[in-house]
Each structure stands twice: as C-alpha cells, then as structure tokens.
Design brief:
The chain has twelve helices and eleven strands.
Length: 424
Amino acid sequence: MVRPLRLLRLLAVMLLLAGSGAWAHLTPNSEISLAFGRTKIAADIVVPLSELTYATNIDIPPGSSLSPATRAILASYFVGHMNVLSPDGRAWGKRADEVVLSNDGFSSDILLKVTFTPPTGAPLRRFDFHYSAVIDHIANHFVLLLVRTDSDSGHLTDHPQMLGGLQQGNMTIRIDRGPGSAWRGFVSAVGLGIHHISEGHDHLLFLIALLLPAPLLASGRHWSGYGGLQLTARKLLAVVTAFTIGHSMTLIGGAFLGWKLPTQPVEVGIAVSILVSASHAWRPIFAGREALIAGSFGLVHGLAFATLIGRFGLEPVQKAQSILGFNIGIELVQIAVVALVMPILVVMARTSGYAAFRTGAAAFAGIAAVAWIVERVFRVDNVVGRAIDVGLGHAPWVLTALIAGAAFMVALDRRQARIAQPAA
C-alpha cells in the first residue's frame, strides 16, 4: 500500500514537472533519468549538493571545482550505491562516465552520467533497479526515476516519463518496458519530424519566401514576367534539394560528431535567413544562385534540428534510424507545403497582380524576420512576433486565402481583357 505522505510528495513533483517547459532539477530531491539503447542504458543523475554533503560528510564548497580525486570518490560512492539486476539475479555492468558540479545560481548539484550494460543473454528492457545513495541516510529524501528517451518504445521527446519514486524503505523498483521495436522508433521519429517542422513557422517561411520568385525571370535588379513551368520546376527542385542537403548535413554532424552552437545564435541566424530570402523575393539579389543560398542557410536550420535529434539513441544504428525518420518527416511536410503552395503561386505569377502580391508577401516575411531577430537577440517577446506566430499557426485559413487571392487575380485579368477587347 502506498503511504499517503509519499503519494503526496510524488504528486507534487509530478505537478512541478508538468508545469516546466523542459526537464530541470526543480526540487531539493534527486532525479534519475534513463535513456534506453539496444545494448546499454545511460543514466543522468542529479543530486543536490547540500543533501549529499549531509549524507556523506564529503565537503564540497558550492561554486568550487571538483578535483580528480574528489571525482573518483564521488564516482565510487554512487556506483557502489546502485545496482541493476536481471530477472535471473545477475548483476549488470556499471560505469561512471562523468561527474561534475553544477551551479545555476539557485542551487548546486552533483551531476553524474552512468552507463549500465546487461550480462550476456539478459533482457535489456526488464530489470530491477536498486539505488540507495543519500536516501540510506536521509529518511525524507526522495529520488524520482524517469525515462528520458526510449527509441524502441517510440519515446523520443525530452518530456520525461514517470517510472516511480525511491526513498528509504523502498530502494528498489522493477522496470519492464515491454518488447521494443525498431519500426516503432522509426515511425515515432517520422512523426516527430512532421510535428517539429509543422510548428517551425520560421523554417517554412524561409522556404516559402525563396519560392515566391521561383516562377519569375530576373531582369537586372527587377523581377519580370512568368518564366514558364520548366524554369519554375528547375528552380523548385534545386531549392528544395539544396535546403534538404544543407540541414541534413548539420543534422548528421550534430548527432554523430557533436556539432552544436548555443541556441540563441542559431535561432537568430534562422531569422536572418528569412530576412535575406524576403529581400530577394522583393528584388533579385542572388538570381540564379537560390540553391546555393538555400543550402547554405539549410546548414543553419539543421543546427536547430541537431540539438533535438542528437539525444535520440545511444548506438549509431539507433541514431541513424532516428535521423532518417526525422528527415523523412521534415521532407513530407516540405513536399506537402510545396505541392499546395507552388501551384497557387504559378497561377498567380501569370496574372498582372502577382507583382503586388509578391511584394506584400515579401514585406510580411521581412517584418516577421525583423520581429524574430529582435525577440531572439534581446530574449524578450514582442507583440508583432507573437501575432505572426499565431497567424501562421492557422495554415488552412492561410491556404484558403491564397486560393481565393489567386482566383480573384485570374478573374480580374479576364475582366480587364474583356473590357480591352474592341466592340464587335
């Protein structure tokens, strides 16, 4: 029977986690998050320094750096206070990979990365997890056990899944993740790619802004008339392919080679890419080199994807599977957007009203880019940025408006052509 006090504490922690935008250490208790591979399990462990000091008498001043000797002591302590046992009672291998001291200005924590490896023939997804660090000396200390990622069960996001809690008197929990499936992980990665790009208004706006002048011929510093279906198809294929190659390269580099940049400059770079493509849609500044620009900025856009996908899978096969599925999801949305939007733009490009529409759409993209640049540089929300995000979130209505606009332009041109005809 679950003790009432323990249940209340567990519910409180769950509410704190649910209210946070990303996983963080929100309580004075410990947290263990597991990432499931196919041959091993990686654990990220967060322990409040004050609680650790009280339980062990290991003196580590907040804000100090850990010496190699202190790291070795801590690694030995934690590895000695945790065990993973297979259903037949055999112990898993365990190794402390990293021990660091973190201070975020509010609290100091010890962060550990530990790898567990099952014995030969033992199931990887079914075991008993025993953990007694700190809780063996502090009766009211609580350890929250979570799943961070589990590709083969389809759990790829950074939103943790609750497994349970550990405390004095209850230091072992049985974990059974059920049969894993590589196909389930692949499908989940595809779905995540679809979801991510569908909500990535900045990624899609960059692509659409590059497509605005695709049906047109460049004449000096101005866009002239419709260039025909063959030219449009060539430009379209080149831009979409180059953008795909660009973001795929940094996606692979982020997942396998650790390529990464701080989030802020990447997000600012994405907004700058929209401003550049909007300026080109207004006046040709790199006519004939759209594919080069799409590929170059695709590298920047891929860095934003790499931050997300780099945490999926512990082994190369899992990561490759996740990258492939994620990329397919992105491409499905891009193909759908191009398939829906491009025919409308081609119809519009053959009318006299397209110049005004293109200029207005380029201005909208430019305003959105500037609003996002300001927002991301100064890290402050602004009304313009929020309004644009909300508007772009209503894609069906935007598409309906485009169709209606194209129909209006065609009807207006036909009316003007009838008026211009000499009376019989």
